[in-house]
Amino acid sequence: MGATGSIGTQALEVVQAYPERFDIQVLTAATNAELLVQQARTFRPRVVVIADESKYLGVKNALRDIPVTVLAGEAALEEVVRDGAIDLVISALVGSAGLRPTVAAIRAGKDIALANKETLVVAGQLVMELVQKHGVNLLPVDSEHSAIFQCMVGEAGATVDKIYLTASGGPFRGKNREYLTSVSCEQALRHPNWVMGAKITIDSATLMNKGLEVIEAKWLFGLQARQIDVVVHPQSIVHSLVQFADGSIKAQLGLPDMKLPIQYALTYPDRVENNFKRFNFVDFPELTFERPDTVAFRNLALAYQAMEAGGNMPCILNAANEVVVAAFLKGNVGFLQMSDIIEETMQRAVHMAAATLDDYMETDRKSREIAVELVTKAKNLYHIAK
Ligand code: NAD
Ligand code: MG
């Protein structure tokens, strides 16, 4: 799911390297019909889904000479993951749109390689209950969570003291609020270490990505908020660390390349040979660590607040964030206004202590409405100020 994106295309590169291990059954995309068609020709899935229904005929026509079923629409995403031939679903779409299809896959008993962190942010409790109930493996693709997961292998009996999630700090590390007032989306899109989709790249610049990852880690590893620390590590070599009850710390290291965590999620528990570039210690004589600046980058603090509040609050945070990031990418709100709007949405949306899947969908919708209204107000002021 999300085959045409940054994670999706890299996952297909991994799949291509091991034809004896993997066989693609289904490919899905939102709007990029051209790439989806090209991928279908290369990987020969039985089904492709284009979520954007206006692209259906184009895809259907382009693939009429090969035996593939073409479907369209969001509902089809939930249908296709249930296919009996599927063992594992790579959830690599972006945003809360990933929740329903990922839940459908879990309910159908499929293992999940999870890149779509928003699924756990929005509905972590519910998703983890379903994972338990259906006995599926939920394998992290996010590099930090893959690192923690790799450190935990062989530690079944051990007690975890805490974990440290590393953060690159993004393109504005070390900058103050005054500087951040006028940064553009072009600047924010220039990530120092990773090439990723637009939404997560902006989230990395605001530190919301780390906030979402803290919530993701809470659910994946069953931790309390106080057991999750964030440490800024600009070189992105140490991908995260686990501290055990005896004080011993394990870390996972490597060059920043998402293909490694993707590959591990797909081959777990095996480690499989590859030709990825190797890390060389002398190329990195200094690995440095510092505290995150939550005064300049308030989103990280807001994410901790949402996590502590629990219930549907992380869903509210996430929905507001998706709205403001889209607005920032269009040049309609400033960098710092994103945090203000998220905070106000968290204050105005209705907080529920416990929620069903429908409650989360409704919270997502209502929080977006509030955030859109706040964006519209902010947009007018922002354009006057510019
Ligand atoms: P991307 O924007 O490059 O790709 C997103 C994919 O999802 C595309 O194939 C798109 O067609 C599909 N999609 C988007 N909206 C959809 C919708 N409403 N319905 C159906 N399909 C939809 O994003 P990405 O960078 O690959 O990120 C995907 C997920 O992985 C995100 O949750 C992100 O946080 C996470 N992640 C990404 C990276 C990375 O290096 N890119 C690293 C860690 C985690
Ligand atoms: Mg990450």
From TrEMBL:
PANTHER family per record: 1-DEOXY-D-XYLULOSE 5-PHOSPHATE REDUCTOISOMERASE, 1-DEOXY-D-XYLULOSE 5-PHOSPHATE REDUCTOISOMERASE, CHLOROPLASTIC
Amino acids binding NADPH: T4, G5, S6, I7, A30, N32, N116, E118, G197
Regions that span the bilayer: none
Organism: Parapedobacter luteus
Pathway the protein acts in: Isoprenoid biosynthesis; isopentenyl diphosphate biosynthesis via DXP pathway; isopentenyl diphosphate from 1-deoxy-D-xylulose 5-phosphate: step 1/6
Residues annotated as domain 1-deoxy-D-xylulose 5-phosphate reductoisomerase C-terminal: 138-221
Entry function: Catalyzes the NADPH-dependent rearrangement and reduction of 1-deoxy-D-xylulose-5-phosphate (DXP) to 2-C-methyl-D-erythritol 4-phosphate (MEP).
The family this protein is said to belong to: Belongs to the DXR family.
GO molecular function, one term: 1-deoxy-D-xylulose-5-phosphate reductoisomerase activity
Cofactor: Mg(2+); Mn(2+)
HAMAP family documented for this protein: DXP_reductoisom
GO biological process: isopentenyl diphosphate biosynthetic process, methylerythritol 4-phosphate pathway involved in terpenoid biosynthetic process
UniProt keyword terms in alphabetical order: Isomerase, Isoprene biosynthesis, Magnesium, Manganese, Metal-binding, NADP, Oxidoreductase
UniProt-recorded name of the protein: 1-deoxy-D-xylulose 5-phosphate reductoisomerase
Positions that bind Mn(2+): D142, E144, E213
Catalytic activity, as annotated: 2-C-methyl-D-erythritol 4-phosphate + NADP(+) = 1-deoxy-D-xylulose 5-phosphate + NADPH + H(+)
Top-tier EC class: oxidoreductase
Assigned EC number: 1.1.1.267
SUPFAM superfamilies membership: 1-deoxy-D-xylulose-5-phosphate reductoisomerase, C-terminal domain, Glyceraldehyde-3-phosphate dehydrogenase-like, C-terminal domain, NAD(P)-binding Rossmann-fold domains
